[in-house]
Here is the input.
Amino acid sequence: MAGHSKWANIKRRKGAQDKKRAKEFTRAIKEIYVSVKEGGSADPDANAALRNAIVNAKGVNMPKDTIERALKKASGVDAENYEEVSFEGYGPHGIAFFVECTTNNTNRTVASIRAIFSRNDGSLGVNGSVEFMFDRKSVFTINEKSIPMPLDVLELELIDYGAETLELEEGFLTIFADFTDYGRMSQALEQMGIEVVNSTLDRIPMNTIALSVEQAKEILDLEEQFEEDDDVQSVYHNMEITDELIAAIEEEI
Here is the structure.
């Protein structure tokens, strides 16, 4: 997980320049829809997943009235029927990809993901073909300014709720825990009054593959193509994010 928070912050800065906010809003709205459907309630107080979805929506600066409209629509009889599906495969240079989607048309999504793999010298695999290469973790990003105690004290507090690793980078603290501790970690941070900027269940590669900067840019381009697809929520791969690559990307921002 070393370097995860640094790379996440670089992507955040890059995204502010390159990606349309509408895409981020679409992802957040879909997360709200799925949370309402799976949690059986449009009341955040009664639906922990929905509370986290709203936190993530606020994290991409979604206006309050947009969130409220999404909640109203998600709880209506004519709400979009989204489902979560995932795809696994390989990109160029033997890099494994795991792509998580939320869609109302699975056939469309399958065709789109397969096409992106194909035109980038990759291949769509079967379920389970790369999932075993990733470790699922609860990942919470919090604003350092919202921490009400010294960092070492907070770390000791959070260990009781499953915290495994903490990474501080550019004013944001990233907390890693096992995916089974997502609920109690979320509740603990909420009770402490700590501002959560984003909370996710990430897939962290257990082993990574180092590439040259030019090869790595091919992988990042493929990752971006997946992320630009409206049905894609998250993209994971097992390419090593080297200091050399980070320096090259930072020069382009």
